Amino acid sequence: QVHLVESGGGLVQPGGSLRLSCAASASGKIFSIDVMGWYRQAPGKERELVATITRGGSTNYAVSLKGRFTISRDNAKNTVYLQMNSLKSEDTAVYFCWTWVLGNSVWGQGTQVTVSS
């Protein structure tokens, strides 16, 4: 069973930056994961894609976020990162780490990002 643990959320002023991290682990097993990514859910809205990245480094972004957000990963650590720059109030949301393992979606617990002055 794969577990995802996010970190790095918090309160930031408009125009600021944050870096989220998500580490994948599986008890007692060596494993590799192909695709990992980030989704977000704002209050009263549906969960939406932010970005995904494959083990080989291919990326996919929400069109509206490309250019401000950058996804990357460290395969050796099974960790994915999300660098968020020029943050806006509308980026306020809970950010969820995601991966796909053996035909199932696996989600992290989420980390709150609040953009406010």
Structural class: mainly beta
Strand content: over 45%
End-to-end distance: 40 Å
Computed CA radius of gyration, to the nearest angstrom = 14 Å
Count of distinct strands: 11
Secondary structure: helix percent? under 10%
Provide the residue-averaged pLDDT: 93
**How many H/I helical runs?**
0
Compact description:
With 117 residues, the protein is mainly beta. Helix content is 0%, strand content 54%.
Describe the protein.
The protein is mainly beta. The strands form two sheets. Strands 2, 4, 5, 6, 9, 10 and 11 form a seven-stranded mixed sheet that branches. It has a four-stranded antiparallel sheet with strand order 1-3-8-7, with no helix packed on it. The protein has no helices and eleven strands. 28% of the residues are buried.
Blueprint of the fold:
Blueprint: E1 2-7, E2 10-12, E3 18-26, E4 36-41, E5 48-53, E6 59-61, E7 69-74, E8 79-84, E9 93-101, E10 104-107, E11 111-115
Parallel strand pairs: 2-11
Antiparallel strand pairs: 1-3, 3-8, 4-5, 4-9, 5-6, 7-8, 9-10, 9-11
